[in-house]
Amino acid sequence: MALKPKSAIISPLSPFTPDLYQRAWCSIPHPTLPLIATAHAKSVTVFSLSTFTKHSSLTGGHSRSVRTVAWQPPFDNDSNKGGGKRLRLVTGSFDATAGLWSYKPKAEDELEQEVKFGNGDGSDNEEEEEDEWEFTLVLEGHENEVKGLSFTPSGQYLATCSRDKSVWIWEDVSLASSDIPGIPSGEGEDEWETVAVLTEHEGDVKAVAWAPSQLPNSRPKNASRYYSAECLASASYDNTVRIWREDAAEGPGEWVCVAVLEGHEGTVWSLQWESKEREDGRFPRLMTCSADGTVRVWRVKHDEDEDQDEGQGLMGRFGAIPNTMRRSLKEEWECEAVLPRVHSRDVYSISWSAKTGLVASTGSDGVVAIYAEDPDAQEEGVSRWSVIGTVKNAHGPYEVNHVTWCKRWDAGIEAERRGKEEMLVTTGDDGVVKAWEVRVE
Amino acid sequence: MEGRGLDNANPTILSVSQLPSRRRKGGAVRRGPDSKCDSIVYPRQHWPYGSGVSSGEDDEEEDEEEPIDEQDIFDLISTISDPEHPHTLGQLSVVRLPDIHLSPSPAKLPSPDALVTVRVDLTPTINHCSLATVIGLAVRCRLEQTLPPNYRVEVKMKEGSHAQDDQVNKQLGDKERVAAALENDTLQRMVDKMLSTCV
């Protein structure tokens, strides 16, 4: 049995430079390269995680603030899978659009080198760096502010959400029609299609997240083989979270809301799936944070009635039974834990480490907290969590908008631990992006 | 606009001398709305009251300035113009001194980064005022622009004063919606116009 972490010492590393001098909304690390992208004002600044300095910036694509940003998978460094030569970002903006960006290194091999070693010496390409990100495509459809983005692990599907109460699912068609996974077909022409528009929320949709379908425990079981592999969760101003799946019986593009998670007493600001593979094979859990000051953990109750669902599923596939009668199209989700309360105001952001299973949260009160799950909790349907470390005033008097676990690549740790060990990165209203070392005991 | 489409054509209006100020009976300390707002920007020079007066000229001791109180908050927002009447929010009693609350008191902060919540309950002139959200937005905007960053501003409709209290309160409490609203040209122009009597 795993040991339960007792305490975490959180200490500041040097902040990223330069300061952005205006509210920054979020910083999203690249899953495999030492890069992190920060959304602020109408642009995105990409920092190097090796040097904590600016790597490049994306400007000129949006007429209003960029609220959010996501890296497009695949990330595999193996060049014959396309990941190594391809660096793509999507931005979500208050101007109601999502923008697609491609990084164009000047020479073929340059990307890898530049990224690996950083260009913190600033010697070669200071002048041109602004032009290295190309705004390649704009996704239009939302009526107003785009607030959240999420890619499926394959990079084929993108979900966007907006104040217009809808979630849109887009497909990168060039990726889908390719013979080799991860390499777009044709000569790099971007082609995207709208797959579905989901409109059941009664308020702004603040965030979306795809379940980690790359994990074995996330694949549909026999009981749910009438669903496709992907599962989407959305968090809203209407205080609820919704779970969405594609109903394979009805054909492609037929997405249905299979569960509504009720319990939060304020806007649900963000959500994160459990991305560490579960030993018990159960479907990943979902964690949410809210304006009500709480963080909640939700689980699906599916294992017990698998046999019944099997029969329902087969019937469902004939497609003749009305939705209301097909119990199998609904999933039962329950809240298994409310994390110990730390925050006195809105919790804006949470991060659930895929490596350690530790959770970090932050929000309007400027506190950063780390929680650990008790691995010995035996009670069925309940998990136990404890706070193992906090930092007050993480950004001085300012609100903290985002927290994320992030791989360390800096010179502060030995070379063999780079790209493996994790730190925290926080993003605040002060326009500062801060890195924090976390020592768990 | 006059006579057509006004939500409340005949609001009660207080004269400036009826508004609460720090020295009701102490003579003309205030010289009008402009100087009131400067007090936040240049506190040492413009607050001729309280116990810390002695070193008024000494620029080096700026960090020992007077703690902000409810009257200061009132002075900051009472001069905002109403979007449909040619009067200020103070004159229309949309903003009232007893409905401003600071917690904890800025005088007793353990550190300069400690948070202070400013709660302002607005009383719209009638209970279905469609401009309530815009007024709330202007008040929140004014306070966020002028108060130090450890202040958390909560602007709400006074209970029972407005038909859609909850929706308006929730919108005004949502940082993301407020940020986006201020990037909307029409709203930004309205708010600028309302705040133009403060600056």
UniProtKB/TrEMBL annotation, chain A:
<comment type="function">
    <text>Essential component of the cytosolic iron-sulfur (Fe/S) protein assembly machinery. Required for the maturation of extramitochondrial Fe/S proteins.</text>
</comment>
<comment type="similarity">
    <text>Belongs to the WD repeat CIA1 family.</text>
</comment>
<dbReference type="InterPro" id="IPR015943">
    <property type="entry name" value="WD40/YVTN_repeat-like_dom_sf"/>
</dbReference>
<dbReference type="InterPro" id="IPR020472">
    <property type="entry name" value="WD40_PAC1"/>
</dbReference>
<dbReference type="InterPro" id="IPR001680">
    <property type="entry name" value="WD40_rpt"/>
</dbReference>
<protein>
    <recommendedName>
        <fullName>Probable cytosolic iron-sulfur protein assembly protein 1</fullName>
    </recommendedName>
</protein>
<dbReference type="InterPro" id="IPR019775">
    <property type="entry name" value="WD40_repeat_CS"/>
</dbReference>
<dbReference type="InterPro" id="IPR028608">
    <property type="entry name" value="CIAO1/Cia1"/>
</dbReference>
<feature type="repeat" description="WD">
    <location>
        <begin position="261"/>
        <end position="308"/>
    </location>
</feature>
<dbReference type="GO" id="GO:0016226">
    <property type="term" value="P:iron-sulfur cluster assembly"/>
</dbReference>
<dbReference type="InterPro" id="IPR036322">
    <property type="entry name" value="WD40_repeat_dom_sf"/>
</dbReference>
<dbReference type="Pfam" id="PF00400">
    <property type="entry name" value="WD40"/>
</dbReference>
<dbReference type="GO" id="GO:0097361">
    <property type="term" value="C:cytosolic [4Fe-4S] assembly targeting complex"/>
</dbReference>
<feature type="repeat" description="WD">
    <location>
        <begin position="139"/>
        <end position="171"/>
    </location>
</feature>
<keyword id="KW-0853">WD repeat</keyword>
<keyword id="KW-0677">Repeat</keyword>
Automatic annotation (TrEMBL), chain B:
<feature type="domain" description="MIP18 family-like">
    <location>
        <begin position="70"/>
        <end position="155"/>
    </location>
</feature>
<dbReference type="GO" id="GO:0007059">
    <property type="term" value="P:chromosome segregation"/>
</dbReference>
<keyword id="KW-0159">Chromosome partition</keyword>
<feature type="compositionally biased region" description="Acidic residues">
    <location>
        <begin position="56"/>
        <end position="68"/>
    </location>
</feature>
<feature type="region of interest" description="Disordered">
    <location>
        <begin position="1"/>
        <end position="68"/>
    </location>
</feature>
<protein>
    <recommendedName>
        <fullName>MIP18 family-like domain-containing protein</fullName>
    </recommendedName>
</protein>
<dbReference type="InterPro" id="IPR039796">
    <property type="entry name" value="MIP18"/>
</dbReference>
<dbReference type="GO" id="GO:0051604">
    <property type="term" value="P:protein maturation"/>
</dbReference>
<dbReference type="InterPro" id="IPR034904">
    <property type="entry name" value="FSCA_dom_sf"/>
</dbReference>
<comment type="similarity">
    <text>Belongs to the MIP18 family.</text>
</comment>
<dbReference type="Pfam" id="PF01883">
    <property type="entry name" value="FeS_assembly_P"/>
</dbReference>
<dbReference type="InterPro" id="IPR002744">
    <property type="entry name" value="MIP18-like"/>
</dbReference>
<feature type="compositionally biased region" description="Polar residues">
    <location>
        <begin position="9"/>
        <end position="20"/>
    </location>
</feature>
